[in-house]
Amino acid sequence: xxxxxxxxxxxxxxxALPVEKDGLERLGFGGFGPAAELLARGAARAxxxxxxxxxxxxxxxxxxxxxxxxxxxxxxxxxEVDYERAGGALTAKLLTSGATRxxxxxxxxxxxxxVAAVTRFALALVLRGWRIDTYRTQLTEKHKPxxxxxxxxxxxxxxxxxxxxxxxxxEGVALTRELVSEPPNxxxxxxxxxxxxxxxxxxxxxxxxxxxxxxxxxxMGSLLGVSQGSVREGQLLALKWSGKGAGDPDLALxxxxxxxxxxxxSLKPGPGMEDMxxxxxxxxAVVGAMKTLARRKAKANVIGVCGLVENxxxxxAQRPGDIVTSMSGQTIEILNTDAEGRLVLADVLTWxxxxxxxxxxxxxxxxxxxxxxxxxxxxxxxxxxxxxLADQLLAAGRATGDQLWRFPLADAYNKLLDSPIADxxxxxxxxxxxxxxxxxxxxFIDKGVRWAHLDIAGTVWVxxxxxxxxxxxxxxxxxxxxxxxxxxxxx
Length: 491
Fold this sequence. Notes:
Elements: E1 2-6, E2 14-19, H1 34-46, E3 56-63, E4 66-74, H2 80-94, E5 101-105, H3 115-128, E6 149-153, H4 159-181, H5 189-200, E7 206-210, H6 212-217, H7 221-227, E8 235-242, E9 251-261, H8 281-295, E10 301-311, E11 323-325, E12 331-333, H9 341-356, E13 360-365, H10 369-375, E14 380-384, H11 387-400, E15 404-406, H12 411-414, E16 424-425, H13 433-442, E17 450-455, E18 461-462, E19 472-473, H14 478-488
Parallel strand pairs: 1-6, 2-4, 2-5, 5-6, 9-10, 9-13, 12-16, 13-17, 14-15
Antiparallel strand pairs: 3-4, 7-8, 8-10, 11-12, 14-17, 18-19
Helix pairs in contact: 2-3, 3-4, 4-8, 7-9, 8-14, 9-13, 11-14
C-alpha cells in the first residue's frame, strides 16, 4: 500500500476524518457542507460513536456534486497506540471494500497531531493491509484487496520524513511475515537464504552463507545433529550491516530457523503439526530487522545470524540418547529430539562470538510450548544476564507493542540440565521448561558478553486479527529490534 501526503483535501470518493474521544462536537468538517455534516453527525449518534480508538462511523454524503463515503475514525486520547488502532481499523474496514484510494484529513481535528502519532497511524495502515494470497487461485473479486493508496492530508511538518523511516520498518515486517507464512515445501534452509538474498539485494548488507561441509569443519555438531535427518541441508546465514564503518558489531541478532519441525524421532502429535512451518520465526524476525536497518541506513554496526535446519525423522535422524559435541567443545546428551532449537542456537552463538566478537547478543526463538502456557499470545518471554539490556528491551517492547515479560535465571534452574554422561542434557524436567531452555542457551554465552534471549513461541503467529495484523504471521520482533537499535546504538 502506498502512503502519500497532500496539503489540502482534493476531490476524493472516500474520506476519513479523525475524531478524538468525546470530540465529536469539536470536529471540523472543512469543505463538507451543512447537509453532509448533519448526516455524518446523525450516523455517529446512531452508531453510539464517541471517538474511541479504532471505532468507525460511516455515512454517504454529498460534496462538490459527488457522493462521498465519509468515515469518522476514533483516535481516542491521541496517543501513538490510539492512532495505531485507528489506522489499522481503517484498513480492515476498506481493504476489500472496492475503494482504491482513501484520504485522511487531519485538519478536522483543529490542531495538528504529533508526528510520531501520525507515523504510527500510517504504519498501521500498511501493516494491517499485508496478506499472502499467492496460493489462493479462486478468490472472488469481492474478496480481493482493492485499497492501494492512502493520502494523508494536513499532516504535521516532519511527518513525511518520519514516514520514510517507518516505511523501512514496514518492509522488514513484510519480509518476516512472508517467510513465516510460506509453506515448508517452499521455504527450507537453502530457499530461505535465496529469498532473503533477493529481498535485500542492493541495500549494502554483507552476506555470509555456510553449508554443512563448512559447518562440519568448524565442529558445529550440535546444529548438524538436528539437520542430519533431513534431505535438505542446513545453512548458516549471516547479514552484516556496518552503518558506523569498520569494526566489530555492537550487537548481534541471532535467530532460530527451523523451517519445519516434526520433532524428529521424538515425533510431535499429528494435529497441529502444520503450524511448525513457523518454527523459523526467530530467524524471520532477524532478517526482517536487518533489512529494516539497512533500508533506513541505521548508524550502527549490527550482525544478524540465522541457523537454518529442518528437523525430520528419517533413518539417519538424531536419536534420544545420542551425544553431540558443539562448536564450543561442550558435549550435549540428547534426551528429546524435539528440543532442537536450543541445539541450533548453541552453535550459531559460538560462531558469531568467535567470528565477530559482538558486545551484546539478542537471540529470538520459537523455543518452548511452555512459553505459550505461561504468557499466551500477548507477550514474549525475556531472559537476560544483564539488567540494563533487559530494561532496554522491555522499553522497546512497550514503545512498539512487541511486548515482553521478564523471567528469572538462576543456578538452581541451571543444575537441572546437568547430565551424568555429558556436560549437559538438552532438556530438564517438565517444570520451568522455558527457564531451563534459556539456561541451556546461556551456557554458550562467553564471559563479559551482554545477552538476552526472547522466547517468541506465542507471538509470531496468532488466530485472531490485531491492530496491525490479520490472522496468521505477525512479524513480531522486527519493530522491537529496530527500536532497540534506535534507542541504544543511535541515540
